[in-house]
Write a structure and sequence with these properties.
Layout lengths: L5 H11 L1 H31 L5 H9 L2 H11 L4 H35 L11 H31 L8 H36 L3 H14 L1 H31 L6 H38 L30 H8 L1
Helix pairs in contact: 1-2, 1-10, 2-5, 2-10, 3-4, 5-6, 5-7, 5-10, 6-7, 7-8, 8-9, 9-10
Length: 332
């Protein structure tokens, strides 16, 4: 009996239970909104600590670049310690908030999805998801450091003139492509491993190993899911890019605020659809797991099995002292 397509199963679950996609959008955008609010509050609090004198205001009103630069230098003089303190607070608060929120949000959506299959684990630990998301943040930070290293490496081959510009760009793009590919693959495995934490109650590294085994054992099905959702993602990106060109083309006929609002609306709609489809992608991977656990029913044969014919046996015991005389009488 043919198994159902995991990709179609993922779409079916996402569109028959739209609350899952909306929940995915809510917890993802809540993290983004909280991050933006924290950045805004930190920036405004930092600006409130800066002292602006009447002489600085006078220099600003002159609109002379040299005088404005002297005013800015006077305003920001001695504020380096405050900006460093603000950056340290952000570097501690933002990753911690993202790790905790992403772990709780992923646990909620996966538990809701797994209610469609009865074989999910009854006991699992949130700290395993925290470990996976901590590894995701660490890998992203390592990728940023790798891009910085690519810039430094390319700078070693640059000269005083621009004769080596093509070589510098080639080195930078090659190293950046390798770093980005490695980060993308590792981030994908870490995201997939969260399924095994909630479904099977695995710890961080055991779930990561199960994700690797899933790709090894069901490479064709996993590749098919990645191909179709990747193609759909590309189509959505191309559509959003083309749609955002229309407000830019009509920018001279409308106010700037209308143009920016239209571009912002298209961008948010694109991210909302992508986040919604991520639920369908996770459901497709779950369908691969559940289909692999179900035994395949053997084909039912319509032919009547032939009954072996046993050789003729006497209806009596030949060793019987009474009935054995019958055979003797037949022989005579």
């Amino acid at each position: 009996m043919a198994r159902p397509s995991p990709t179609l199963a993922g779409f079916r679950l996402a569109f028959t239970r739209p609350a899952l996609g909306l929940a995915e959008i809510v917890w993802r955008w809540s993290i983004g909104a909280a991050a933006c609010a924290l950045l805004s509050v930190t920036l405004f609090e930092y600006l409130n600590t800066l002292a602006v004198s009447s002489l600085d205001l006078l220099l600003f009103r002159s609109r002379q670049p040299v005088l404005v630069g002297r005013a800015l230098a006077h305003i920001f003089a001695g504020s380096g310690q405050r900006i460093i303190s603000a950056v340290v607070v952000l570097l501690l608060a933002l990753p911690a908030g993202w790790i905790l929120s992403a772990s709780a949000g992923r646990a909620a959506t996966l538990k809701a999805m797994l209610s469609s299959w009865p074989r999910s684990a009854q006991k699992w630990r949130l700290r395993s998801l925290v470990g996976l998301n901590s590894l995701r943040f660490s890998s992203a930070l390592a990728a940023l450091l790798g891009l910085f290293g690519a810039t430094m490496l390319a700078g070693l081959f640059s000269g005083d003139d621009n004769s080596r510009a093509a070589l510098v760009w080639l080195i930078f793009l090659t190293v950046a492509l390798l770093v980005g590919s490695a980060w993308s693959a590792l981030n994908w495995f870490l995201s997939l491993a969260s399924i095994f934490v909630v479904r099977d109650g695995r710890d961080t590294f055991a779930a990561l190993g199960d994700a690797v085994l899933l790709c090894h054992d069901h490479f064709g099905a996993v590749s098919a899911v990645g191909f179709w959702f990747g193609l759909l993602h590309f189509v959505l990106f191309a559509t959003a890019t083309v749609a955002s060109c229309f407000p830019l083309a009509l920018a001279t006929q409308f106010p700037k605020a209308v143009t920016w609002i239209a571009i912002l609306t298209i961008t948010l709609a694109y991210f909302a659809v992508v986040d919604y489809l991520y639920v369908a992608r996770l459901a497709a991977y779950l369908a691969i797991l559940e289909n692999s656990d179900e035994p395949v029913a053997p084909a039912r044969s319509t032919s009547v099995p032939s009954t072996p014919v046993s050789p003729a046996r006497p209806m009596y015991d030949p060793d019987d002292l009474i009935l054995s005389d019958i055979e003797t009488a037949k022989g005579t």
